[in-house]
Hints:
heterodimer; A: Rossmann fold; 2 domains; 12 helices; 36% helix; B: alpha/beta; Rossmann fold; globular; binds magnesium ion
Amino acid sequence: MPVMNIIQAVNDALRIEMRRDQRVVVLGEDVGKFGGVFRATSGLFEEFGPDRVIDTPLAEAGIIGSAVGMALYGLRPVPEIQFADFIYPAYDQIVNELAKFRYRSGGQYPAPVVIRTPYGGGIRGGHYHSQSPEAYFVHTPGLKVVIPSNPYDAKGLLLSAMRGEDPVIFMEPKRVYRAARGEVPEGDYTVPLGQAKIVREGKGITVLAYGAMLHTVIEAAAKAAEAGIDAEVIDLRTLLPLDLETVLTSVRKTGRVCIVHEAPRTCGYGAELAALIAEKALTSLEAPIERVAGFDTPFPYTLENEYLPSPERVMASMRRAVEFQ
Amino acid sequence: MTTPSSQQRLRDMMLVRRFEERCAELYGAGKIRGFLHLYIGEEAVAAGLLPALGPADTVVATYREHGHALLRGVPARAVMAEMFGRVSGCSRGRGGSMHLFDAERRMYGGWAIVAGHLPVAVGLALADRTLGRPQVTACFFGDGAVAEGAFHEAMNLAALWQLPVLFVCENNLYAMGTALERYQAQPDLVLRARGYGVDAASVDGMDVEVVAAAARDAVERVRAGKPFLLECRTYRFRAHSMFDAELYRGSDEVARWKQRDPIALLAGRLRTRGQLDDAALAALEQDVAREVEDAVSFADASALEPIEELTRHVMAEVAP
Ligand SMILES: Cc1ncc(C[n+]2csc(CCOP(=O)(O)OP(=O)(O)O)c2C)c(N)n1
Ligand SMILES: [Mg+2]
């Protein structure tokens, strides 16, 4: 099986789907001739031409609006927003138009657009090349939100997203774009949306994460094991729809929970997870739910390693939960 | 003998060039990290324009703004320290290369969201007018910004309300890897402004004397209470940022533009006029190098922001 990084896996998924389905169209800033700033669309322009791989001006609202229009007429647009930090000029198009189209047309007009966007910190990008805005989109009914952590899932989830009937915000963890490598099957396969994955089984504590943070958590879990803490690590993969069953089954087994994300803590996705667990599994809990998150500040420049959850912070949080009497 | 202003302009451009060449080296050495967008090749725009402003006027610029900060008078030490992310930097090391602020010199950034600053520049000018202040807001932006919706809202507002904003378009023919004619339905950007009722002119942005003359004229018009857009046709010699294979343009094109290097252009002209000789040029080079090296030592010796400060300045600091 070929070994790929996440960028190659995304590229592979796009190519497979564009070959299979003539309706798929890629558009965005520098996605064509340039191949994308992270090279995720590299080679697509050469293979599929300018009608299916469209270089756009700097115009995020225009990119998403055009994608919505194309989707309404039955195409399958896959726009790229170069960094998640630049998605805000298109926020209105996403939240007011894309997400609500099916609903406000009484089901007549679905708009299956898949918006790909690299997110997250850890590359010294400072305020505007580091943000994790997933919670804004999870809070918007009508959208699905998908965040892979590794190449296998990136390819399989993206293929599923492009074959679905609903709009998807597909956020790619740029910090591990190249660092996360793994075996990826050649050709077609899908990873269904709405299924979490247990990446490490354990009995002592449930640790929930997604995207780049999954790697931090795995490192923390390995350290924790040396300290006698038996962590069960779950990669959520899809934030909406959430695989609540897998989460609750694990929590009922371990009785302790630690949630990790790099977005700011307040009203981050962890808040929703904590609320759901408290609603559905309160009696199984043996300790307060722990959250390890970014701080409630804009994304910092020099202090990003302090801002981002580290294996040490995750480990300390797990210990607090496990030692709670 | 050279006239002081021409020699000063030459020095200005040399300072920016030298400063950024050092930044590129320091990036390679890991002292400067993250994103770094060099202005090399475009120096004549900032050097021609900024001296036309007074100390009470305001400057708003993009992420390619090291030259604007330096020539606005932000000390090289404070700019370099910001590049290093040190507390002695002009934004306390908070932002780095793309976020240069300095209240004393009315430098309002450093904006890394393309076109995000244009409506805000309109607001600054609206406030000036509301407060009865005869000031000019100079707002620099790239050709790419002209495609964003924010540009068009800003143009209309500035014209509708007749606000004292000088829009300076640094047209270097590319937005990252996309050439102007591949993303603009109307590549003549001056027509864009005129379409909104904003007077506009286009000048050779490689010739600092041409920019300076146009800037004087434009600032005068704006100070009289009307928006103006000055397009400076220029070219970036380096990659968009530090990583970029430059597959989108030919090396012959780059070479052709380098023939019009703004520093060489002015130096050559001053020589022909008998206003500059080898010794004077060498002295300028040394002087500029000294200033830059001093800035590097200062930055390197400065401290990083301590972790305790991470949550400072999110909100106003009020006594509980
Ligand atoms: C809203 C937004 N979209 C995309 C980007 C990514 N980006 C940064 S610079 C740039 C190109 C800008 O070109 P131009 O305005 O011509 O300025 P130049 O870099 O040529 O000086 C792009 C696409 C961004 N920073 N902000
Ligand atoms: Mg440009």
